[in-house]
Amino acid sequence: MAADMEMFYGLCCFGVIVAVVLVLMWFGFDPPRILGNPDDTELVVPIPEKQMVRVENPFFLELGSRPASVPGGVSIRPSCLEPSVLTCFWGCEVGALQEALLAHQHGATLRSARLFQDALRLRCSYCQTFHVGSEDREELHTQIPADRGVRDFGPPPRGRYPLVAVLTFGDSEDGGSYNIVASVTVVHVPDDKHNIPARILFEYLLTSQGNVHKLMSIFMAADGSEASEPPDPQPGSRPGGQMEGGGGRVDEAVGDCVVCRGAPVNRVLLPCRHACVCDGCMLHFQHCPVCRAFVLESFALTRPGAAAR
Ligand SMILES: [Zn+2]
Ligand SMILES: [Zn+2]
After folding, report:
1. Given phi > 0 = left and psi -120 to 50 = alpha, else beta, which region is 154?
2. Which of 44, 81, 161, 188 has its CA 20 to 30 A from that of 74?
3. The pTM is what?
4. What are this entry's molecular-function GO terms (predicted)?
5. Which ligand has its closest atom nearest to the C-alpha of 257?
6. Which ligand is nearest to the CA of 270?
7. How far is the CA of 116 from the centre of ligand 2 (A)?
8. At 248, is the pLDDT very low, low, confident or very high (cuts 50, 70, 90)?
C-alpha cells in the first residue's frame, strides 16, 4: 500500500516536471534581462528617430578680445551675411526673455523680430543699437553709461541676464530668402557680485514661422581617433553654417564609428549629443558608448552636399 502511494507521488512529480519542460520549450527559455549587459542584446524597442532640420543661419556673434566687465562694458564681434542691426539689452529680466521666446513660439503677437525686441526694451536696464554691414568684422564696444549708476546685477541667483545681444536684419524684417529672422545671444558679463569670466550662456535662433531653435554643440572626435568633448563647448554657429537635429552645430571633421571602426559616424545620440556610432552599430546600443548616458532619441548626421534623405 505504502509502495503504491510512493509510486503514485513519483508519477505525479514526473508529470509536473515534464509539464514545466514542455511549457519552457513552448514559450522559449529567456534568462532575466536584468542579469545581462543591455548592450549585448538587440534592442526590443527601437530608439525613436528625430526629424532633422537644416537651415542657413545668416547671423554670427562672438565675444571680442578686450576684457569684459559690467562697469567697463564688453566688446562683441558680429559677422552677418546681410546688413543687420545689433541690439544690446543690458540687465535684461530673465522672465522678459523667456516670455518673449514663448510668445514668439505660440502667438502671432510677437512674430516679427521688431516686436520681440520691443518686449525686451521695456524690461532691461539699458539698450544700445549698432548697425552692422555685411562686410563688417570689427569689434563693437557696448557699455552702460556711467551716469546710469549700474555697477552689478546682484549676487546669484539673479533675476536679470547681464547682456542679451539680438541680431536682426536691417532693412527688411523677413530677411528675404532666410528662414531665420533673429539670433538671440545671452552673455554673462562679470561684475563684483558674480566674477566668473565673460562667456556666451545660450544662443537661440528665431524663424519666420515662429520657431525657436536653441543652438547646442554636437560632440564628436575631430581626428577620428577618440570621441571627446571639446574643452569649452561654447554654443555658436558660423554664418551660413548648417544646423541640424533641431538646433545642433556640426562643423568638425567626422571620424569612424567608435564601435566597429569600419564605418563613418552618421548618428547623433540624444540627449548627450555624442556623434560616435554608425547606423549599423546604433541598433545594438541603449547607452551611449562614450558617456554611458541612456539614449532617448537619435538623428541621422548628413554632411552638406550629401544626398537628402
Ligand atoms: Zn559602427
Ligand atoms: Zn554620450
Report:
1. left
2. 81
3. 0.71
4. zinc ion binding
5. 1
6. 2
7. 35
8. very low
Burial class (CB within 10 angstroms; exposed 0-12, middle 13-18, buried 19+) of 277: buried
Is there a single domain that holds both residue 142 and residue 257?
no
* pLDDT grade for 211, boundaries at 50, 70 and 90: confident
Tell how far the Cα of 224 is from the centroid of ligand 1, in angstroms.
13
pLDDT per position as a tens digit, 84-143:
999 999 999 999 999 999 988 886 655 678 888 999 999 999 999 999 999 999 999 999
94 shares a domain with 42? no
Ligand 1 centre distance from Cα of residue 287 (Å): 14
User: Could you give the number of structural domains in the chain?
Assistant: 2
Overall residue count recorded for the chain in this entry: 309
Q: Is the peptide bond before 197 cis (omega within 30 degrees of 0)?
A: no
Summarize the confidence of residues 294-303 as an average pLDDT: 86
CA distance 105 to 97: 12
The whole domain housing 254 covers 37-53+241-303
Helix 94-106 with 113-121: angle, nearest 10 deg: 160
Cα 291 to ligand 2 centre (Å): 4
